[in-house]
Structures are given as structure tokens and as C-alpha cells.
Specification:
The termini are far apart. By secondary structure, the chain is an alpha+beta fold. A 5-stranded mixed beta sheet has the order 1-12-2-8-9. The chain is built from 7 helices and 12 strands. It has 2 domains: 181 residues, 2-Layer Sandwich (60s Ribosomal Protein L30, Chain: A), CATH 3.30.1330.100; 71 residues, CofE-like domain (CofE-like fold, Alpha-Beta Complex), CATH 3.90.1660.10. It is globular, with a radius of gyration of 20 Å.
């Protein structure tokens, strides 16, 4: 498996991402091949969608002001988190723990990095539809079948640093199901599933970086994955709260604290 980082110019709101990718690749003596997978940083997609917000233009509600005071957040940022999150579970100084699209994340995925001063970048809108559109547009005029992953970096419980997470997937099966197969010693696997798309996003994260690398796209070539024309919405890559060990334990303690 080979990973190739694509260095891009600064992306501006409203830019046509597919045209930028195509023109950049053509200038780099490189071309996409059949079954290449493009891992694209979510901030790039969101910027092209103009999902950038200027903090000093945000109207702050009393609830946001309360969260701002309690968790040492800028009030406009607290307001945007409230607007974007499906649920706010709590927080620590500078961070609110939220659920968005059935995924546990900090600050509803709102990002300060790689945003102009005084601005933040929200998560992309309609990420699955967007991933499919990028895939379709890049495939146009060629015989190549491509995969697209819109990726973000997230923290893991009790682990230092970030790993990659697939916000949306197009063209590949994001989960490999091992249930019903046997391990090396013949034991039947009952619950094991591999997060293929998340693993690819994490591999690409090494090249995507978090600072000024200016590599917002990584092409993965030769990945041992299954390509598919089926649309996999984000909920097919998540599990319920009852199935999630972290959320189930979190809610048990939360219920005890309030009883």
C-alpha cells in the first residue's frame, strides 16, 4: 500500500475543490489510477462550502454565555457549538464534549486550526453527498473507479494525540465484518468488525498533519479494500449508545450522580 501526499495552494471559501485537485495533480507529474482512494481533510471541504464563521458576528444566547463562563470558552464559540451539536454532555476548560451525528467529539467538530484569525471552520454539510459528488466529478471522463474519504482528526479516550476518523465515505466499504469467521485457534469471532475507513484516515493522517504541511489530500494506492457503488451513510459507521462501552458507562455514572 502506498500513500502519496498532495500539496495544495491555500483554499478559499467558494473554491471548486475538484478543479483545484485536478489542476494540482496535473502539475505534479502524477495522475490518479484505478482504485486510488483520496483522503481529504474535512477543513478543506468545509472551506470550499463556505462553512467558515467569523466569531465577532455570532449572536450569543444566555445558554451559550453560561457555558462560556463555566468552561472558559469564548461566548461566540460556545454559541456555535450549541448550534452545531446534537447534544452537549459536559466539558472541561476550553472544551465541550458533544455528540454530533451519533459521534462523540470535542466542540461539535468546530476547528480553529487552518482558519483565518478570528474565524472557525465548521464540519462540512452533507458530507456523504459531498464525498460522492467529489468521487463522481473526479471519475468523469476516465475509466477509473475511485474512493473518497472525508477525514477529520479526533482524540481517543486516555490516549495522547489524535487519530484519523472518516467523516464520510464514497466508493469503498467502510467496515469489514469478521463475525462468523474463526481466529488462529479456531475460535468463532462474534463481535469483531474492523473500521477500514477510519484506519485509512489514520494512515493518511501521518501525511495530512495538523500544522502548516499544506497537504490536505492523501492518495492511497493499493489498499486491500472492497470497492462498492453502495452509499454508506455515516450511521452505518456508528453504533448505538447501548452498544458503546464508553457511552454506556458514562450514562450509568451520570444517572447515579443525578439520582
Amino acid at each position: 500500500m502506498e500513500l502519496i501526499g498532495i500539496q495544495m495552494p491555500i483554499i478559499n471559501p467558494g473554491d471548486n475543490l475538484v478543479k483545484l485537485v485536478s489542476s494540482t495533480i496535473s502539475r505534479q507529474d502524477f495522475s490518479l489510477a484505478h482504485h486510488d482512494i483520496l483522503v481529504i481533510a474535512e477543513t478543506v471541504v468545509a472551506t470550499c462550502q463556505n462553512r467558515i464563521r467569523r466569531l465577532n458576528t455570532v449572536h450569543v444566547t444566555p445558554r451559550a454565555k453560561e457555558l462560556s463562563d463555566r468552561y472558559e470558552l469564548e461566548a461566540p464559540l460556545a454559541q456555535l457549538i450549541l448550534d452545531e451539536a446534537d447534544e452537549v454532555l459536559g466539558g472541561i476548560p476550553q472544551v465541550l464534549l458533544t455528540i454530533k451525528d451519533n459521534t462523540l467529539m470535542a466542540n461539535a467538530g468546530i476547528d480553529r486550526s487552518n482558519a483565518p484569525a478570528g474565524h472557525v471552520v465548521l464540519l462540512p454539510s452533507n458530507p456523504t453527498k459531498t464525498a460522492w459528488q467529489i468521487k463522481t466529478d473526479l471519475e468523469a471522463g476516465s475509466e477509473h473507479e475511485l474512493g473518497v474519504i472525508i477525514a477529520d482528526s479526533r482524540t481517543q479516550p486516555l490516549r495522547l494525540g489524535t487519530v484519523g476518523l472518516a467523516v464520510a465515505v464514497a466508493g469503498i466499504e467502510p467496515i469489514k465484518d469478521y463475525r462468523g469467521q474463526s481466529d488462529l485457534f479456531g475460535r468463532l469471532l462474534r463481535i469483531t468488525r474492523s473500521a477500514i475507513a477510519d484506519n485509512l484516515a489514520s494512515a493518511a493522517q501521518i501525511l495530512l498533519g495538523e500544522a502548516d504541511e499544506r497537504v490536505p489530500i492523501v492518495v492511497i494506492r493499493g489498499a486491500p479494500v472492497k470497492f462498492s457503488k453502495k452509499i454508506f451513510p455515516p450511521e452505518e459507521m456508528t453504533i448505538s449508545r447501548q452498544e458503546c462501552m464508553y457511552m454506556a458507562i458514562f450514562e450509568q455514572y451520570s444517572n447515579k450522580a443525578t439520582s
